[in-house]
Design a protein that fits this description.
A three-stranded antiparallel β-sheet has the order 3-4-5. It has three domains: 2-47, no CATH class; 53-148; 163-336, hpI Integrase, Chain A (Orthogonal Bundle), CATH 1.10.443.10. It contains 15 helices and five strands. With 348 residues, the protein is mostly helical. Residues 156-332 form the Tyr recombinase domain. This is Integrase. One of its GO terms (biological process) is DNA integration. It holds the Pfam family Phage_integrase.
């Protein structure tokens, strides 16, 4: 049996004991541990709190004032329920997280999301609360998982609705009973404003500056900002026309589209299923709207002023577009909705 004790002022402040088969091994361990414990900050680290990883997740969720997105919350709750999360944080190794990724049984893109959210907890735990969590552990695990092909970045979608598919959707939505969600206007607005469904349902008439014209996009999606990321975005003539058609009086206030984003998504998905339209998501309307602006000859800064992209590098995927026409020129639904089409290829 080998024992290492550290005293301060004649009082034992730390003690460790290990058992070995042979005396030389025991002496080597004592010598190594004495050297490690003599390093600056070594004892402070041993005295630091070391809760289970599940408890660390709970504290992270409770104190994260910016707000945690629905997907991130679901992932962290799932991680907290695992047997691995029941262990003390300092005892979890990179190899443990690699095995965790293997056992998930999900697509590499999904596994990458899991490790990304776990990494966020690691990044905060030590500097914020002094927990014994080394961010290098999860960093090394992510590198290994990437090298083994266990994780990968999400592939960018290039799906765009065809005019025939949109015609079928708009016809179906037009046949719905009076008082239903105005999906015709919402679909058109999603395309011409390039807004996401959550953003559409948060915009208000008070956020509109008709003279410019532009509008505030509240809590715009951003990797590091889940709330309070308000961005002012330019409006295309079509998007402005849709907003004005929704305004019944100049002084009208409140949400432009006062509906639940989840319901909009469900109605859109159900309509695609009913019509036999495969692999079309509501978010693809935003991609179509951004692509259209490049097809009109707009450059990256001008497109970003509408889409709200903070970094232009995110829009470089569209620069391969060489068409110089308006997909929606002469689109009959513009006239039916009272929207004026703009076919100019000049920069705004």
């Amino acid at each position: 049996m080998a024992r290492v004790r550290i005293k301060e002022g004649g009082v034992v402040v730390h003690s460790e004991t290990e058992t070995f088969d042979r005396e030389p091994a025991a002496r080597l361990w004592m010598k190594t541990r004495e050297a490690e414990l003599a390093q600056p900050g070594a004892l402070a680290k041993l005295r630091a709190p070391d809760p289970t990883f599940a408890e660390t997740i709970q504290k992270y969720v409770a104190e994260y004032r910016k707000g945690i997105g629905k997907t991130k919350a679901q992932v962290l709750n799932a991680v907290a329920a695992t047997s691995l999360a029941k262990r003390r944080g300092s005892t979890i190794t990179s190899a443990d997280w690699v095995q965790f990724a293997k056992d998930l049984g999900v697509l590499p893109q999904t596994a990458d999301n899991y490790l990304s959210h776990i990494s966020a907890v690691y990044q905060l735990a030590r500097p914020a609360w002094g927990y014994q969590l080394d961010a290098q552990v999860i960093s090394d695990a992510r590198k290994v998982c990437k090298a083994l092909g266990l994780t990968s970045k999400s592939r960018q979608r290039d799906r765009r609705p065809t005019l025939d598919e949109l015609d079928k959707l708009m016809t179906l939505f037009g046949n719905r009973r009076k008082g239903s969600i105005p999906m015709q206007e919402i679909v058109a607005y999603a395309i011409f404003s390039t807004r996401r469904q959550d953003e559409i349902t948060r915009q208000t008439f008070e956020d509109l500056d008709e003279a410019h014209p532009d509008i505030w996009v509240r809590d715009m999606k951003h990797p590091g900002e889940k709330s309070g990321n308000d961005v002012r975005c330019d409006l295309t003539p079509e998007a402005l026309a849709i907003i004005l058609s929704r305004r019944k009086a100049p002084e009208q206030k409140g949400r432009i589209f006062p509906y639940d984003s989840g319901t909009i998504s469900r109605v859109f998905t159900d309509a695609c299923t009913l019509l036999g339209i495969e692999d079309l998501h509501f978010h693809d309307l935003r991609h179509d709207g951004i692509s259209r602006l490049f097809e009109l000859g707009w450059n990256i800064p001008n497109v970003a002023s509408v889409s709200g992209h903070r970094t232009w590098s995110s829009l470089r995927r569209y620069t391969h577009i060489r068409h110089r026409n308006d997909k929606y020129a002469g689109w009959p639904w513009l006239e039916k909705l009272g929207i004026r089409s703009t076919t100019t290829e000049e920069q705004p």
